[in-house]
Each structure stands twice: as C-alpha cells, then as structure tokens.
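I have been asked to look over a protein record a colleague put together. Thanks in advance; the entry in question is below.
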Amino acid sequence: MNVQPPGKRAGRILLVLAWGAGLFLATRFFGQWEQRQENPNTQLSSQHGDGYVEVQLLGNGQGHFVADGRINGQAVQFLLDTGATDVAIAQALARRLSLEQGEVVILSTANGRSQGYRTRLDSLQLGDIVLRDVRALVAPGLGGEQVLLGMSALKQLEFTQRGGTLLLRQTTK
C-alpha cells in the first residue's frame, strides 16, 4: 500500500487548485478581450462644447461600429447601419423593451421581403447624445439582440468617419 505523507498530498491538491484558478482567470480575461474586440465602445465618453455634444466610436475588428446605449432608458447594443432607413429592432427585443406595434409595413432586406411593424422610441441614447421621438421598425425576421441604428436616428446627427473612428455630433442649440 502506497501511503503519501500529508504534506505531499496537500501540495498536490494546492497545485491542482492553482491550475484550476489559472485556467478560470485566463478564460475570463480572454472572454472579456473577445467582447472588447466585438464592441470596443462599452464605455462611451462624450465631449461637450458650445452648442454641441460629441461621441467618438471605435470600429471593431470587422470595421463595424457597435456601441452600448439605451432605448427608453433600457440598455441595448447598437450596430450603426447607414444603409438602414429606420432604426430596426428584433421582435423579441421589442417585446422586452415594451414597444408598441403600430401599422404593418413590408420590409425589403438583404434576405428578401418580410412583414414588420412601425413603432416610436420615446428616447434613444448613445453616450450623452439623446434623441427623442425616433421612428423605428419592429422586424420579426431580425435575429439577435443588436439594434440597427439606421438613418431615422442618424439623420439627426452630423457624423464623420476617419481612420477607424466615427465621430457623432448632436447640436444642442
């Protein structure tokens, strides 16, 4: 019978625990790193000037502009889409946000035609930029949790893209 001294057994247990803790911390670190690669704009800072508010966004690894924001005070993630006429919200997310479904509309998307619903957003916030009474669509065929931030919101802002950054400016006067 092979009996190990108590100190050796405790050392092995501590080694296994150290490896487990190391793997756990590495997994958390790389998971957060991957999230930052997808959305480098989780903490937005705003610049205030005489008569304007600016928010600067960084492009993600695919060159898209993704940012955390709010609709009617509730947290969402935006994907800026200058090719979208309106702000577009997946049906499941629209239910979570308690958005009313208005008139039925036919949507023309890259995946073909589908049926959606008009709605209005009381407020849409990106950093310190706040837009009121924004036209939007509930798109049942849209998957995921990202809100497509289309031109019904973006036309209320000035925006400039340079070198992997997008500057959004709202005039306040």
Summary: Confidence is low (pLDDT under 50) at residues 31-36. Helices lie at 6-38, 91-96, 151-154. The first strand starts at residue 46 and ends at 49.
